[in-house]
Structure formats: C-alpha cells, structure tokens
Specification:
Number of strands of chain A: 3
Structural class of chain A: mainly alpha
Largest sheet of chain A: 3 strands, mixed
Distance between the termini of chain A: 67 Å
Shape of chain A: globular
Oligomer: homodimer
Strand content of chain A: under 5%
C-alpha cells in the first residue's frame, strides 16, 4: 500500500465512526420528536449538543487534515468510488472546519430549545413565546453562515444551502423559483377555470378511525416497498422520515375528517425511506454512500407521492383498496373521484397540505424571507407581518394567525435555513425522473395500475438510490434523464395533469 | 484556585461529558428493547459499541489520569461532596483503565448480539441457538474479569460484582445467600403449612383488557410519584427501568389472565425510577450524583413493590381502586383477598414472578452458576442441566424447558455477571429501610392506607435518594437504619408476614 492509500484507509475508519455518531444523533432526534416526554427536553438538548461537538472534534482533528492531504496528493490508486468518497470527505471536512466548536454546541442547544418551544407555542399560535429562541437560532445560523461564506469564498446563502444541496448556486435557484412565481398567476387561473368547468368531486364521508387509517397507511407503505421487519411508522406533530437502511422510521399525523392527509404523508415519507434503503450497501457509513442531497431526497418522496400516487393509474388500483380499508362504498370511492380529489388545486395556508401547483409558491415565500433574515434585511420580530404580506402577494390569501402562517414549519426552529428551496428543486427533479423512467420502462405505469411498485423501484435503485453521492445532482440527472435540472419538464407535467380536457 | 482545584474542576467537566455519553447509550438501549424493528439490531450494536469505546477513550485519556492525581494530591480545598465525587471518579477510572479498548468494543458487540438472539430464541426455548453467542459473552466477560481482578488485586467475581455493587465482598455475599438457602427449606414448609390452614384466596375472574391494565398501571405509578410529563411507560419482553430524573422510562408486560403481574411490575419499576428522580440535583451528571449501586437500587424497587404494595395497609386503599379499574365487584376484590393473593407463596420457575420467600432461592441458583461459569468450573453447554439440577435441589421443582429455566433472564446475554446477588441484598436492605422509616415516621403506613406515598417518599429522598453516592451502601444503611446490611431484619419481616396467625 502507498502512503496515500494508507491515509485513505484511515480516513474510511474515521468517517465510519463519524457516521455512527450521526446515526446516534438521528435516533436521539427521532425519540425527541416521537417518544420523549416533555420533561426530557433540556437533557436531550445537552445530549445532542455534546454528540455534535464530539462529531465536530473528530472532523477538526489535526490527523484527519493530514490524512486528507496525504490521500489527495497520492490518489492515483483510488477507484472512482474511492475518489468520490475522498471528495465527499473533503466537503464534510470543510463544513466542520469552518465553524468553531463552541458555535456548534451553541447552535445545537439553541435549535433543540427552539424546537421544544415551537412544539407548545405553535398550537397556541403564540409567536411572542417563540420569538426569543427563534432570534437566537437566526443569530447563530447567520454567524455560521458568515464563517462558512468566508471559508468557502461563496455568498452566505450559498454556503448555507450547501449543507443541504452540495454545490448549490443560489442565483440559479432564485431564477428558477422566481420564474415559477411569474408563471403561477396566469397558470393558476387557467387551472382553477378548468376545475370549475367540471363537477365538484365528492368528499368521502368520514370520520375515519385512526386504527383504520393506520392499517391502510401501513399497507400502502408496504406496497411502495417498506418492510416492517426493518421499519417503524409512528405519529409526530410534523411528519418526517429518518433512520438507516435497516431501520427506517417514518411518521405521520392523522386527521379523522380526511384520511388522505396521513395517507399521502406516508406515501411521501416512504419515498424518502426507500431512497435511504436503496443506497449502495458497499459504501454504508461512508460519505459517498450517503444520499446525494435534499434535492434528490425530495425528488424521491415527491416522485412517489405526487408523480405516482396522485396519478389516474395509481387510483385504478388504490381506490377499491382504500374503500375496503374503511368498509365503504359509493360514488365518492371511484378511481376517478379519488383522482380528482388528489389533484384538486386549492390555494391554502399550509405548505405540507398544498397541492402540486401552489406548493412552489410556499417555497418562494420561505426562500425570500429566509434570504432576507440571513442578509439582515428582515428581523424576526417582523416575520409574521412579512409572511402575511408575502402569501397575500403570491396566492392572494392571508393567514388569520401565525399557526397557519410563519409558525407552521419546524425548519426554522431547527435552524434549517437554505433547506426550503430543495422542496421545489426536488419537485422538478421528480418530474424529470418520472418522465425518464416511464420512457425507459413502459411497463412501470401499468404495474402501478396493479399496485406493483417493483419495476419503478428497480429503475430508481439503479439510476438514483444506488448511486449514493458518486455523482453531483446535475450529473446524476444527466445520466438518468439526459439533462440537468430543468424546470420545463415540471411545468409540462403540470399542464398535462391540470389542464387536461376531460 | 489551587492547581489541585483547577484539576478537579476539569475533572467535573470531563465526567459531565462522560455522563452524557452514558445517557445516550441508555436511550439507544431503551429504543433497542422497546421500539427498534428487528432489522436494526446489527446497526444498533455498532452504534452502542462505538459509544462505549468513545466513553472508554475519555476515561483512559492521559490527561484525565494527570488531573486525578493532581486533584488527589491537593484535595484539602474539596468539601465532602467534592471529595466523594473524586473518590467515585477514581472508581470509574479504575474500571475503565483495567480494560483495553478492543475488549470494550468486543464485549459491547457480543452482548448486543446475544441479547438480540435471546429475544427470538427464548420464546422457542432454543438454547442451541443461544449457546454460541452466550459462550462468546461468557468468554469476554471472564477476560474482563481477569483483567479487573489483576488491576484491583481482588478475586475475579468480586471485581465483576464491583461494577454493580461498589466494594462488594463476594465472601460476605455468599455467606448471606447460603445462610438463606439453609434457612429456606424449614421456613418454606412452615409457610406452606400456615397457608394450607387458611381458605384458598379467590382468583379475580379475567380476562383483563390491556387498555384497562394500562390505565390502572399508570394511575398506580402516578400514586407512587411518577409524573408522566417527565416519564413514559411502555411494553417490553423483560420489564426494566431506565432514563434520567426528568425522563424516566419504565416498561412492563401484560398478561390478560392476571393483571397483577403488570401492576406489580410497574410498582417495582416505579420504585427504581423514583430513586433516579430523587438523586441530588446539584450533582447531576457527576459520579457522586449517581445511584449508589444496585443493592440500594433494588432496595428501592422492592421497598415499593414488596414492603409497601404487598402490605395489608396498601390493599385497604388499593383494592377498591383496582376493582373499579376493571368495573368489577365481589368477594375476590376485597382488601383481605387481594392481600392474600399478593402474599401467596408458591415455588415457581420464573424469578420475576417469584414470591418474596422463594425469590432468594432463584438468586442463590444464579449466583452459584455464574460463579462457576466465571471460575471456569462450568461451561455454557452444561448450563441447562446444571440449572435444572440446581432448582430441583433448592425448591424441589424442575423446569420443563429452558424458556422456564436458564433462558428466562436477559442478564447473562447482556453480560451482567455479578449483578444477580444485588436482588437479594436489595430485598434485605429494603426490609431494613422500611422498618426504619416506619419507626421514624409512624404516619407513613397510615398515609399508604389512604393511597398517599408522600410521607414515605419524603423519608426516602432524605435518607436514600438524595445521598447519591456520597456514602458507601453500608454507611448509608448505618445512618438510615442504625446498622449495616443485616439479613436478620429481612427474615424477621418474612416471619411476621408469612407466619402471621390469622
């Protein structure tokens, strides 16, 4: 072995141990959101902060930098996966080494505390209670952003986005988002006019018991591909997906009046979980074995939820299954009616309940506001008003309170600034990937019409999941679809689905 | 500040971080036993092993030894709590530094794997499936015992017991246990004869729904003092208690035919949890703030379950509460009948279901066997036969299979050798503490008769919980009861309760 390869081998071991700490933080965070009694919040914040400092210490150790340099200077023996792994190690190293240890600890504590406050303040729409801890999170996130911006020689918001979407170019992202904001008003009018010309779809009559909903959600997650010998499904205030390949944890929340909220949430989170489960086994716990970034992660959840499970083909199979789950029958339960409901466009206050057409407007709003917060052009105290004005401008609706406004999402309390854009980038990538998959494997959609997700998952494993972080997002999209991220395919999909004549 | 005090202050910070890692391991272990899907077992074993190595690395760091020596050589500025904290730091340091890092990792992986195998092999009574991984656990535990024995200059089994009961003297323990084994046959005959002269108590007619049992268990845990804003109660194969003061986690298992199993289990685990909740807040995450050892820990669970919640006084209040929980009435539900059932003596196969009189026989059996395993006088392959012979000798009953025999407990798969004796030492300490509390505060038992545990808990907080690890077990018992651990009080309690004339 060359000295460079020896250094590389030590790096693999160091990053394996780093990945174990990250997994542990994931378990602590899941427990905090799903299981922990409220009294545990303070201790948990300390536990997570301490582990984050440990993980940070591992990455800022002098030996690691020496090994990275040694491996880099003598990298000819590395194959393409190892070379990509080394590249991803550097990325993680740069992010960690841009920040001092005490900022890592302070940011971790502040976000844990703010998330805890948010949990109780949100139902009461109590922005005054949230404000001080959110101000602290914003302050520390800006501090981290400044440090990373200086270290990377990139603009502050790009440096923050890079945590979620490697090599993100904020200018390109803003062009895509603002292009959609410009496209939306006329298109939304057309869609609403098209809908208005049709019969109003019938609402299936509830209530739907939580027990029945759970059984249905579990069945649907299994249909997508989750195996509950290595997965759990629980309830949480904000649905999410976490865990590792052999221990997927998805959450949802149940509305007794509308089963579709939990069901669509579970299909969405199952898409995320299937991505994690399909990552390259040979690169488990190595940086190149991780998911590529949040754009592709969201593309996987939205491909399942939006592209596939809100299609006519899906409801041909799913409508009788859903009706049976609630021992129901009648005109509300036909495939056509359920499809109409699943593709109904209605501007609303809540992002996670938004339809495909208006969802990007929620993202435009958040991106504008968080960029202003990070630039110092907006202060937390003015957030509720800026939110109301922003949503009114974009969708012509005004939230009556902060629970339905700027307090609805956990992202900012969690310190995740630069994350929101990836939802819409992910929707665009999902449209590209779904189109490419259907073209490459014409049997995929007919299998969906029989409740068989196997051909789709096979294609996704081979073209997305199994690639890990070998390629950049654009490289992966080029290989899989023939072009880099392209908003045009998403718009074409929306025109096809929402301006459809019948 | 003197250099010695500066070193001491650094030690407090180092041990605070060590305690955070131990808490995190506790959460991972709880999740593994209560929530984790089976597929997660391998990854979880790696996560826990890695954290154990991290914790071990912290304790074997050169700087820590230097700080311990510096604080020790200049300890005059320390108050009594700080001095005791330093003493406990040394104890933890000695345990860690006796073992090489790779043995810590190997032992952690082996016990996680063995516990996982045990979970599926136990219901099938499949000792052949368990044997290889249990052999590995025994081998690694002996290796650790040898290393500690050499490092401490103490016999191997003493060195292992010391992990659970600091300064344990195995010879004294064996004398106490074998004394009980000699006392039991004649006493048991007397007890059974006394019982035979009375009417057979009536079994409350089931089945008892899990939902009703859960509600009752929760109410009873709250009565003991648990606050579910900072506690959880779940189900697991083997009931246990874990967590920290503000986040207690107890588990139980439900038998629809006999509600008292889950109920008594919950009362037992609540006693453990109340000890943790009553530890000195000022010494949170410091060694002196930890529970003193497993003898006192078990004394707290057994004091609640056995001394208090199997007393006549308790059932005066509890009988109508229990009957109401199951919407039941009739002669089976009188305080006297429920008391008779709760104090019925019946030799059986399962330790956790054993009555107070025969329970120590189960401990004698395990202690004899595990001492032989550790001494190399018994091999794992011969364990099932040795167990059958041993139980037959002690209680004149022979388990029909290994599920009811040597596979019933998680302790050996978990690598906990030297732990079992503390159950009976704890029962003895519980008898002493209960007698002292009743004498000191005569109102305690009349309050129990009204379902009010406050006076009892106040006494326990002040005499046991709040002491943390300030004193040795014997010192604490001397201060609280007037004498060191003394089997005579336990025997007197048994005579009073089980040879009672009426």
């Amino acid at each position: 072995m060359t000295p460079g390869f020896e250094a590389y081998a030590r790096l693999e071991e160091a990053f394996r141990r780093h990945a174990l700490i990250e997994e542990t933080i994931g378990v602590l965070h899941w427990d905090m959101a799903v299981m922990m009694p409220p009294g545990g919040a303070r201790a948990r914040a300390e536990q997570i902060a301490d582990l984050r400092v440990l993980a940070h210490d591992m990455l800022t150790h002098e030996r690691l930098a020496e090994d990275l340099a040694a491996a880099e200077s003598d990298a000819t023996g590395l194959d393409s996966w190892q070379a990509a792994n080394l590249r991803e190690m550097w990325r993680i190293w740069h992010h960690a080494n841009a920040l001092p240890s005490d900022l890592v600890a302070a940011r971790s504590r502040a976000t844990s505390e703010c998330e805890t406050v948010w949990r109780t303040a949100r139902p009461r729409s109590d922005f005054r209670a949230l404000r001080p801890s959110l101000e602290e999170v914003v302050r520390l996130t800006r501090e981290a952003g400044v440090a990373k911006s200086e270290a990377f020689g990139r603009p502050l918001y790009d440096a923050l986005m890079d945590e979620y979407e490697p090599d993100a170019d904020a200018r390109r992202v803003i062009v895509m988002l603002e292009d959609y904001a410009a496209f939306l008003p006329a298109f939304l009018d057309e869609v609403l006019a098209t809908q208005a010309r049709r019969c109003v779809p019938a609402e299936p009559p509830g209530p739907f018991s939580v027990a029945d909903q759970k059984r249905l959600c579990r069945l649907m997650a299994e249909t997508v591909g989750l195996d509950f010998d290595s997965a759990r499904m629980d309830e949480s205030l904000h649905p999410f997906s976490t865990g590792i390949a052999d221990d997927s944890r998805i959450t949802t929340r149940y509305n007794k009046a509308d089963y579709s909220e939990a069901l669509m949430g579970v299909l969405h989170e199952s898409g995320h979980a299937m991505y994690e489960r399909g990552l390259p086994r040979d690169w488990h716990r190595q940086p190149v074995g991780d998911a590529r970034g949040m754009t592709l992660h969201e593309s996987q959840s939205l491909l399942i939820e939006m592209q596939i499970c809100r299609s006519r083909r899906f409801f041909e199979w799913a409508a009788p299954v859903i009706a049976k789950a609630f021992r129901a029958s009648g005109p509300a339960w036909t495939p056509d009616n359920l499809y109409r409901l699943a593709t109904r466009v209605r501007p609303g206050f809540i992002r996670v309940d938004a339809d495909e057409v208006t969802y990007p407007a929620h993202i435009v709003l958040r991106t504008r506001l968080e960029m202003a917060l990070m630039a110092g052009d907006l202060v937390v105290a003015d957030l509720p008003g800026a939110w109301r004005d922003g949503l009114t401008e974009l969708l012509d609706i005004t939230p009556p309170d902060d629970r339905l406004g700027c307090m609805q999402d956990v992202h900012w309390p969690d310190g995740n600034f630069g994350y929101f854009p990836t939802y819409t980038l992910g929707a665009m990538a999902a449209a590209q990937l779904a189109a490419a998959a259907r073209t490459a494997e014409p049997g995929i959609m007919s299998a969906i019409g029989r409740g068989d997700f196997t051909p789709l998952m096979r294609w996704l494993r081979s073209h997305v999941h199994g690639k890990g972080s070998l390629l950049s997002t654009d490289e992966l999209l080029c290989e899989a679809t023939g072009s880099p991220l392209d908003a045009a395919v998403f718009k074409a999909h929306l025109r096809d689905r929402y301006l459809e004549a019948a």
